[in-house]
Amino acid sequence: MNLEDIRAGKLKHLAGADLEDEDLSQTDLSRTVLSGANLVGSNLSGACLAGARLEGSNLLGSNLSGSDLRATLLGANLMQADLTEADLRGANLRGANLMQANLARSSLAGAFLSGANLTGGNLQGADLRGADLRGANLSSANLQGANLNQVDLQGAILNQTNLEEADLRDANLAGATLAEANLLCAELVGANLKGTNLVNACLTGTILDQQQL
Amino acid sequence: MLQGSILQELRDAHQPGNPDGKRPLNFGVYFKNTLVALCHALEDAILMHDYQPLMITAFQRGKWYLQEADRYGEIAERAPQVVILAAADTGFADHPTSQRANVALVSLEEDDPVAQEWHLIILSPTYTAMVLCQELSEDDYGASGCPTHDLERKFYGLWTFEPNLVLETAKLAIAHIAAYNPQLAAKLTDHHQEIAAQIQRLDTPYSAPTVADLGEIVSRVVAYLENGPQGLESDRSSNSLAASPSPLSNNLISNELQAFLRIAQLIDQTDLSNPMAAAEVATLAESLGQLLDLPAWQLHRLRLSGLLHRIAFLQDAATPLHPSARPSSPTAVPLSCPLIPGVQVLRTMQRLKAIATILTHQTERWDGQGTPAGLAGDEIPLESRILGLVACFQQRLAAHRSRLQATPDLPLTPAATPAAAYAAALAECQAEQGDRWDPKLVEALSLLVNGLQQGLSLSVTPPKIAAGLWLLDSHSDEDLINWGASSEHRSLSTASGNSGTYES
Predict the structure, then answer these.
(1) I need a labelling partner for A213 at 20 to 30 A (CA). Which of B156, B274, B292, B428 fits?
(2) CA of A72, closest CA in chain B: separation in Å?
(3) Which chain B residue shows the shortest CA-CA distance from A167?
(4) What is the pTM of this model?
């Protein structure tokens, strides 16, 4: 497998390829098949992976900052990956492992994250408008100032999650668990709080309709 | 939230869905140094102008007042009435400022919830501003515990220039003062009514006396948040968003952005014919960007530009603290483009450089006959072209909608429906394509309008003002135009990947 050919965008079928620690920054990998590939520790910063297939790939600790990841990442391992300012709009991240990943200021609008593990992740200032996070685990994640407008968090776990100043207007939090979560000055107008567990959550300065609680 | 506090009373009056139709408040979190910088900037406006305000301040403890007492002495020379509320500390009443005839001290009981608040209420016919906060309780700090460093103390609440909200809060504060000093409260009520009458003499329910000097005041707010006022140590630990700034630094940046979003909010509130312009333009611009398959960072820039676009039309927006506004030296490089006063206010915040450029060139024309630089075709930054078109379309749409609303008895014919308003506004833009607008963008707008006419719904929500940081990223301070190139070969910077073109 020639790395130069990959960088030149000549190889589009890389399923199961071993690209551990390789530098593929700024590379055009759009519509490339990388299913099950080993990309541990790789540098994909600024790469274009739009339309790529990365299901089951291992991106542990990889650098994907500023990349275009509007791709299929079903069940991918993105643990501790750097996804700062990555474009993940509409990406399929169902069941992905994003534990301790850095998603600060990333764009996840309309992304599919149901069942994903985002425990301890940094999502400060992330754009999650309309994302599907049903059943996702966001415990101890930092979502300070994130935009969660119209997000679906039904049944999600947000224990000890930092949601300070987050915009949760019209979000669906039915059946979600937010024990000890920090919702200081979060906005919850129009949010569905049916069956939501808010035990010991900080609700100081939150804005919500009177009939919501 | 402490029961009986002014913040709580104000929040309760603004609960979502309340029968008075009052807009719900938008609370934010503030570190102590953010509040100090904010208050100094808002107070300094009193020292620079002849506003003659009524000023009500709550300091928590008398010792905090004593730290500012000399400064308050200067303010008292400009303000006919200053009221200081604080739990009394030794020396509270002895300072020379406290002895002035127009300075009234109110010693709060130790268990008064207002003694846990931080207020600054400035009320005059031509300048209204307010900071209203409460310190976090031990429980609010949660597992992290109370901060050990004074600067890390956190408060929550709001700050604003909105005259109606400041008038309402001042009334609550005066009612609270009445329990301590009924005579003073009666005097303040008269003063309040006098000012309210002058403000409400202006012709809109959201009269905005502050707008005249708002550019200058906001420039000062941003400068103080960025650098700290004289004598206040700045805690800015990082200038790069990419480099994980500290929470304190983030809080300062967030409030700089808030200052601009608050101007935009005020501009919209004072325009009863088009009060949702900012939110609508932001949504339309972002949607058009999505149709053009622009990257996420460019969509965020478009949204923020849309939210702030009307600031460019602020007139006489002096920016006394910004270097670019100072008289140029003999060796200064001539300007490539005339300065737009409103945009100069935005330039006080370095991170909004790209947004300022987008707003500057939103009035260019595709045929090169526009202002301020006479750029033509692809020379005009793409986001400026989108913003200019969308803002004009939205304005026309609002005008058509107003006409429809003004004639409610009109039979519901196809010509009198909201869909007809879309069609009419679009037709006016289409008539100008190739001259004023980029034809490909008009084409994309037509697609969007088609979708809207067929039931596509766009979510138009005003921004959560205290949480705009998600709109700023490492692309926000880029140069969009390479003015170094000759006029024949002016080109857009490619450093950001913004080629000025798009795939249609």
Answers:
(1) B156
(2) 17
(3) B464
(4) 0.89
